[in-house]
Amino acid sequence: MTTIKSFKSPLFFLSLILINLFASLPFSEATPPLTKCNIKLDNPHYSKSVEIRKGFQAIKVNARSRCNRQMTNLVLTVEIHKLGFLRDYKVASREIRVEGPIFPNTIIKNQGTYVECKNSKSSKYYGEAYASAFIKGERLKTLHVLTEKTITVNCGN
Amino acid sequence: MSSSDESGLIADQEWDDAYFSLVIELRTKNSHRYLEQTELLLHKKSIELELSGYSVKYTLDRTGCWFDATNSDKGIGKRSWNRFGWGKKAKRKALPDFFAKTEANILMPEEL
Known about the structure:
By secondary structure, chain A is mainly beta. Chain A is 4% helix and 50% strand.
């Protein structure tokens, strides 16, 4: 069985976020972004707690969102996808909505996204996360970010 | 690994421990209700209920089930979906655990 020995290392730091005002301006490459917002997305990993406490295995993906500006109406979504023969399948998703306000640099976590292993069939999983929020009255969306790794585990779903 | 990474890892582990303990507790405590809810949901395709200040709605689709919970007073909402498979049998088997898991999502302290 393949195991992920160090699921949080390295953390996949993806800082692409806000479609801001500068995106549409010429010479935008010379202009620093208005905000520093990011989503940290851990690689898919076996949850030790599930294995110990529930007696079966599950694959879990955690995400954290942080922004240096005050936000309202944050929606942070985490999805787990399984690689399929013809296409990939979404097997789990979890969304947290906070109407706010959320103060600058507050960390919002979405850490309850998991999928149970129903059998020991070898399968490949990856995670995806995205968010949207209002900043200064404007609705901004992140890019969809993927986990750095797609893991192969004996965990069929 | 930096100390902040380590403390984050410990906090995540503690959250996981508390969360999955709660899932097990709910599954045991409410097993009868979850079985009733399962049959009702399979029959009606969508059910609504109130839980700890949240308006909760479960909706079946072709391959899984949506959970949507809103607490207007707190201004917080939670939504999740899990794939169970196409058949009724697979859904019937998976739904009690899904009810426990989603109720734990509501009852756990906010992830802020």
